TrEMBL record:
SUPFAM superfamilies: L domain-like (SSF52058). Keywords: Glycoprotein, Leucine-rich repeat, Repeat, Signal. Residues 243-256 have a biased composition (Acidic residues). Gene3D superfamilies: Ribonuclease Inhibitor. Residues 229-242 have a biased composition (Basic and acidic residues). One of its GO terms (cellular component) is cell projection. InterPro entries: Cys-rich_flank_reg_C, Leu-rich_rpt, Leu-rich_rpt_typical-subtyp, LRR_dom_sf, LRR_TM_domain-containing. This is R4RL2 protein. PANTHER family: ANTIGEN BSP, PUTATIVE-RELATED, RETICULON 4 RECEPTOR LIKE 1. SMART domains: LRR_TYP, LRRCT. Pfam families: LRR_8.
Amino acid sequence: LQNNVIGALRAGTFGPSTVTLWLYSNNISSIQPGTFRHLPALEELDLGDNPHLRVLAPDTFHGLHRLQALHLYRCRLASLPSGIFRGLRSLQYLYLQENGLLYLQDDLFADLANLSHLFLHGNRLRALSEGVFRGLSSLDRLLLHANRLAVIHRRAFGGLARLTILYLFNNSLVALPGDPLAALPSLQFLRLNANPWACDCRARPLWAWFRRTRVSSSPVPCASPPHRRGTDLRHLRPRDFDACPDDDDEEEEAEDGNGGGGNGVAVMGTPGRALGRPGTLPAAPPSAFYRDGLPPHDPPG
């Protein structure tokens, strides 16, 4: 049913034995309550690329206990109601990129304990709160690039012990106070480039984290102060922070949350095509999950 001019979805349209439902690239603007409620076998639902779809009811996806992949990319969703993902305990792939999302509520993903891939890039997010990713204990890949992020709570990534890939490039980040990356013991790929990093005292937590994790990376260029513009943040020296006030509490919290340090993270630098995925990422899942602009193979690094 993809690539048509369907404008509305109504209850009773789809049979209970439906396993895969592709409705992407239509003109869907409304989804009647109960449309998907009696589809117990549904494993993949693609509603992406429906630019007239701007609002979803809180119970739109309730009852889809076997759903593994949910595509909501390239719609015009400015917000997501509380409880919209409630009960989707089989969900592994959630595509929310290229919408107009302005914020994410705490506990929005609390029921998604099996989610491995969360794509949130290309939205208008400005901040990440403490509980925004609560419950995502299986998350492996989190893409947040090309937003407007300026603030990340120091515990925003708490509980993401299995996360291996985190993209934060092309945002408005000046600093990462409180060492939020210390909560990610499994991290392997991190991208922080294309942010206006301030390489003054505010850079010390991030600089110290790089030293503890022995990161091999491409540059993380400073944007300020003027005499350090273009300098790689990771290559700052201890004496560059001699004039900075001590913050023992912050350093102790960073040590406690690091889970043993030295995890050999690789930080990727220049954005590539599509998602800019680094050249050594693990193999992608089945191609059906990647119609929405993800390359089937990783481009050269």
